[in-house]
Every structure is written in C-alpha cells, then in structure tokens.
Amino acid sequence: PNPLPSSPLNRRTFLATSAATAAAYALAARSLAAFNRDDPKGSTPAPTRTPAPTPPHAPPPNLTLSDGGGEGDDTNITPAKKKLKLLILGGTAFTGPHLVRLALARGHEVTVFNRGKTEQRIGSLPDSVKKLIGDRDPKKGDGLKALENTDTWDAVVDTSGYYPRHVKATGMLADRCTTYIFISSISAYKSPIAPGADESAPLATLADPSVEEMGRGYENYGGLKVLCENEVRSFMKGRCAIVRPTFISGPGDPTDRFTYWPVRVLRGGEVLCPGTPKDPIQFIDARDLAAFLLTLAENRTSGDFNAVGPNPVHPPYTLGELVRDSRDASKSSAAFTWVAPDFIEKNTPEGLAFGFPIWANPASDDAGMARVNFDAALRAGLTPRPPAETIRATLAWWPKEVARRERVGRELTEQARLKGEPEPKVPDARLLRAGPSAAAEKAVLDAWHVHTAADAPRPG
C-alpha cells in the first residue's frame, strides 16, 4: 500500500480515509502497514492505508437508548412491535456490530454477509446471528454465491459498498427484500459544499466512472459512493434509503479520528488546537447511526439522509466545546493553545505527518463539511446523543482497545514465527492512528511560543 499524501488540514480527505480505513481493517485484519508510526511516545500521524474497497416517518415508539453496556452499547432497549428479518452486508467493522447487537436487542432476526475475517480481530458476533461467507466482488472466490438462495428479508443494510460494480451485483436481492439501506458518505457531495447544504446539494462526479480504485489521495471516494447510490436506486426503484454519515465516532472506532481528541486531552499537558474554540464540528456516534439505520428499516423509510450530529439545534457544537468536555470527562490537567491554521502549516517540520481530525478550517473550501444540514434525518428519527456521552464512552472503551491492539500484535508476531516469516513491525498499541505526532505538535507549539514572545510588548 502507498502512504496517504500529506493533506494536513483537509476535512474531506479525513472523511474519506476514515471510512476507507475502517473498511481496510475489516477486509484485511493482517494489514500491519496501517499500524506503522514515527513516534513511540505521543499521538501519531495518519496511517498508511490499503485502499478499500456515505416521505419521512416518525421513529418507532419506545426506542429508548442510554449510555453504557458492553463495548459502549446502549441499554434499556424496548423490543420492537414487529420482528424483522435483517440482512447486513458487512456488519463486523465499526457501526455494524452496534447495529447487530441493537437489532437483536429489539428482537429482530439478523443475518450478516461478509468475508468472515474481521471477527478474528474484533471478536465473534452473538451466536444467534446467521453468518454467510463470501465476497462483495462476484469475481473473487465464491463471490455472492451464499446469497443465491430463496431467503427473503424485510431490510438489507449495506455497510460495505464501495464500488458500483459490487453494489450492482447485489441487485439480485431486489426481489427478495422490502427495503434496502445504503451507507454512503458526506463526501458524496461535490466540493466545495456550501454551509447549510442539505440532501439536494450537487453530488461528486468521476471523469472515469469505471475506475475501481480510491486514488492515492482518496480523490475517487466520493464519486464512487455516488455511483453506488445510483445502482441502489436503479434496482430498488424507490424502496431504498441513502444515508450519508459524517465522521462516525465513539466506541469501536478503528480510525481514531474522534478518539484523538478525548485521549489526547486525557494525556494532559499543552494541547495544540487549530483555529479558534468557536470553529464548528460535526460527527455522529456510531450507536446513534446504528439506531437510525434500524429506525429506517422498521419504518420502511425511503429517501436521502445526512446522518450528522451532534447538536440538533443551533448554535452548532464546536471544537472548543469538544476539548473542554473531554477535559471535564477525563479530569485531566490539559491546557489548550489555539493557533492559526496557516501558522501550523508553515511551521510543521517536513517529514512529520500532520492533521487535525474532525475539524474543518472555516476559511477553506472544506468549511461547509462542518455545517451540513441534517433536518431530514432528524424528522426521520435520528436522535444524536449529547457529545459528553460519546466522549465518556470513548474514554471507557480506549483501554480495552489498547489491550485488543496489543493482542493482535502478539498474534500476528506468533503467526509469523510459526510460518518462518520475518516478524512484523508492531508499534506501541497506545499510539493513536490520527492527529499530529507528539514531535509535530511540540515543534509547532515551540514555534508559536517564540512567535508570540517576539510580538509581546517589551517593558521600557
């Protein structure tokens, strides 16, 4: 795999690589390239990635969710009035496990279709889940053969569609499901996206619609998602929902995009923050996204929806609130230093990867990515939880995730030994996969203090 080219303050790139990284982990649990880091003591740069393959109804009654349980799963869930048969294409990466467990808690019957590899990394799904093994690419292995049966489903939830040819192949399910819910991305919108844009905003296009690679900078990601959406609309003929999430956050995040901020604040000291405390940010808790997907399935809701949070009211949530809420949750001694984006870019040492996840420079073309309208999703039943709940759950999950990464590292090392292969380079599991490295953060802060000292009025 090729390293992601430097794009330190580009929110759209982070969105694309967030989803693509999650898929890469789901499709290749042994891909240690994604773990390589340059600094063993602090937060770390964006990882090397394998290109991977975004009328409303009221929400179902009594779908009551609260913080806690399992790997951040919700509790106090009321059973659904009607049992559904659900087929989840994927189901084992990030949002998928939350959706599986929530659907089971609501009393639904769940089948998952995937390659059967990610469970080796995250642990097994509940025994009551029916598991079909195959590949989204009909040209690989047995392809979709496991789906060539007479089973019917009330809803298909597609969490793993990245290439239109793969999605088109699942058109075989059109006559055997009532509704089809496709997970797209906010990156499906044409850049730049205007602040306040809703689902009618112009969509991304590709010069070559037949391309089947994300591109070195994931420049094809959004356009490919649009083509996947079109395939779903074509074979479902109105019986579908297209869901375009922003940054998916919370327990289970394999990208550390959201996780960077609570964990970095937890570690204390001086924290470099870009822009100003009033800069708006948007993200969605994976558990809220899972609940929304299930709401769409239970209500047979069709249409396009921006799955965004956290604040359903104005003013929007800000980066300043995120770091302050993280400090409150962790009881850390962190202090925040706000630095202008252009200064950060000019003073980041060459060769040190850099970037601030889930933040968009308000002065850039990406500013609208942090101000997307999600009224349609709210009307259809999306209920974003308070950001503090996501922060607390992420901090509670993080030590378990560190232990899991350590286990995976040991297992991969042992597998290499047994096969007589060179031992893989396994980094410190405490390292974050997103955000500036400790060295880059320190270099910019040092330069900033020199700059501000030079500009300070002198006595005399």
Write a concise keyword list for the protein shown above.
460 residues; alpha/beta; seven-stranded parallel beta sheet; 12 helices; globular
Quick structural overview:
With 460 residues, the protein is an alpha/beta fold.
Notes on the structure:
It is built from twelve helices and eleven strands. It has 460 residues and is of the alpha/beta class. The strands form three sheets. Strands 3-2-1-4-5-6-10 form a seven-stranded parallel sheet, with helices on both faces. A two-stranded parallel ribbon has the order 7-9. Helix 8 crosses helix 11. The relative contact order is 0.17. The model is unreliable at 1-9 and 22-70 (pLDDT under 50).
Order of helices and strands: HEHEHEEHEHEEHEEHEHEHHHH
Distance between the termini: 59 Å
In the predicted model, the low-confidence regions spanning at least 5 consecutive residues are 1-9, 22-70
Alpha-carbon Rg, integer = 22 Å
Strand content: 5-15%
Mean pLDDT across every amino acid position: 83
Strand count, sense and closure of the main sheet? 7 strands, parallel
Task: Give the strand line-up of the largest sheet.
Answer: 3-2-1-4-5-6-10
Counting helices, strands and paired strands, the structural category is: alpha/beta
Silhouette: globular
Helical residues, percent: 25-40%
- Number of helical stretches of at least 4 residues: 12
